[in-house]
Fold this sequence. Notes:
The structure holds 2 protein chains of 2 kinds.
Chain A: H1 3-14, H2 21-32, H3 37-47, H4 51-60, E1 72-77, H5 80-84, H6 87-98, E2 104-105, E3 111-116, E4 128-130, E5 133-135, H7 143-159
Parallel strand pairs in A: 1-3
Antiparallel strand pairs in A: 1-4, 2-3, 4-5
Chain B: H1 6-11, H2 13-25, E1 29-34, H3 37-41, H4 44-57, E2 64-69, E3 81-85, E4 91-93, H5 98-114, H6 125-128, E5 131-132, H7 137-140, H8 158-163, H9 168-176, H10 179-189, H11 201-210, E6 218-223, H12 232-239, H13 241-255, E7 259-264, H14 269-284, E8 300-305, H15 315-322, E9 346-350, H16 351-363, H17 365-369, E10 379-386, E11 392-397, H18 402-409, E12 419-424, E13 430-433, H19 443-448, E14 457-462, H20 467-481, H21 487-504, H22 510-526, H23 530-534, H24 537-545, H25 547-554
Parallel strand pairs in B: 1-2, 6-7, 6-9, 7-8, 10-14
Antiparallel strand pairs in B: 1-3, 3-4, 4-5, 10-11, 12-13, 12-14
Amino acid sequence: MGDASVAAQIANKWRKKRGSLIMALHELQDVKGYVPWEDAMELAQAMNIPLARIYEVLTFYNFFKLDAPGKAVISVCTGTACYLKGNDKTLEEFKKQLGINEGESTPDKMFHLQCVRCVGCCGLAPVCVVNGKTYGRVGAGDVANILAEWRKKFEDESKE
Amino acid sequence: MADMSEIEKRFDIHEIAKNKKQDLDRYVCNIYCCHSTGCKSSGSDSILDLMKKSIEEHGLQGKVRIVATGCMGLCAQGPLIRVEIKGQKDVLYKRVEPLISRIIITEHVVPALKLEEGQEFVLPDFLQEYVLSLDLPFFKKQEKVVLKQAGHMDPEDIQEYIAGGGYLALEKVLKTMTPEQVVEEIKKSGLRGRGGAGFSTGMKWDFASRVKTDGDKFIICNGDEGDPGAYMDRSILEANPHGVIEGMMIAAYAIGATEGWFYIRAEYPLAVERIEKAIKACKKTRLLGNNIMGTDFSFNIDIRLGAGAFVCGEETALINSIEGKRGTPRPRPPYPTDRGLWNKPSCINNVETLANVAPIILKGADWFASFGTATSKGTKVFALTGQVEHSGLIEVPMGTTINEIVNEIGGGVPNGKELKAVQTGGPSGGVIPTEYLNLPLCYEELKKVGSIMGSGGMIVMDETSDMVDIAKFYLDFTVDESCGKCAPCRIGGKQMLLLLEKIIKGRGTKADIEQLRQIANAMQKASLCGLGQTAPNPVLSTLRFFLEEYESKVAKNEK
């Protein structure tokens, strides 16, 4: 199935429902990992919504990504409990080891670093999440291990 | 009931409850495995699989039931597993690892089931270190209304909810009460909004019910829990989705709503999934749709997701977001009860508020009002986090003191450190220093000390916490989350943040502290919505109680 039909299918599902733009964009990002410009264009036409309206929404909400993220998305929780327990230091360590800032991807597109507001596991603070896998009670000392774990995972996958 | 047809029986909640109870009675052992976001993150998924396999290996499927439940509360000690065997004492295990989960089956469940009646099972020593005493104040001192069945029920099984008395409140309302009587009962109970502001729920429903409309009227559940460091609503949605839905349906009947909407943060995928499943199950059981329970009441529910914007917890911003627009607030009045979603009258209630409704209807307003203080009734769920021994989700009667929560239920501050302050209300709240340890937690008392009840985040800070830094942390958050629509919030917040940074870097002066106060006052008075009006609270409250920390940072520039 070509890329074009993803947006068309989503548009078809949501077109007639009320308040559906954000839901459609969620589904698009679920499939693509971000919201590519071409798909936003297609969604605009198929749902009969001006492209400017779509971008107005995309840029307002933190959740939507406009660029392709790295393969492993590292989310460092910056909620209050995690902050109090020193997650800012872990964030700094990720930045140092990856050589990127928050909201950026590594040049090889392997890692993407972002901050999230609260993943709701405050009991495990400080918390980091990588592609849905949660790491509780992390410290700056764990950063190298987490990165190595994912590098190895991608290496193993590419060998197969 | 004798002449009920087979089809009617299939959809009768009393029949469903009877059959399910019979079904559940067959089991002599129930193993409850916490399956909420916190414990899932600690690995409860694989433990659940392993235990199921192990039970099958021992051929115990017909006797032992393994239940994936909602939050059991003590998240820091997860994954949690509770073993309940008929005739034996309940045992709660903490920090269960995959291997231990198998050992629990082979060394606890299997031998205990072989015992004859009256014989007491003695837990082997090597398992003792994984046991969490149920006599801990953490468990003993709580009072559970909203979370009553959390940790004791499969949240994805509507039949189990019904077997536990679920949807009886809805039946009572639809068959024996008028909408006016429902509103009166909720008013009488004294229930107030659990989202933070504490407005009387009964009054809100009263306003909403009086608005005449020729078309739609909506009831909206606000599940956009944005306070970083709080997860009460997520846990309630995950642990008791049908409780929230039942509350929403009763609200809909009371105010005459035609349709219901859940607005939930996209960061809470499990909560969304559980509500989706619960809505589907309701439709299948004919608890949603046309002519519910054979009455004239027809109602449907849909879900819309947030997309990471704190301001969307504000009700007018939330309405814009459901409509698929940018989540910017608009001035009130008109209030949403007059003109809300798609300009139709809409009533917005918080998750925990709705979860309180069914118990109030079933047990009566007087029962509910027997908990709490003169003006704050019932219980409140708090997410107790930060520098506290037992971090987790708790539910206590309103009026419980901070000391009881932090030092008794929470087990105090770890590592021999001293308690410095407790923060409530998140980025809209304030810090409460130790001289107010005996302050009863209720809406009015918290306001008096410059904080708010908020949605229920409670963050414990020890002596090492830098209060100016904490104020900066919260302001950083609200500046980032300001929608930018009104100048006081957009510009004021940024300027306050710059001043705080200057002070923290040691370049500030006393005049800067004074300036902070002035901007804060202007923001409180002139901002359009709650976000801007309350954003200065963390700064003002730290200035009030910890001024010396600010002054020590500017002292060297004052010579």
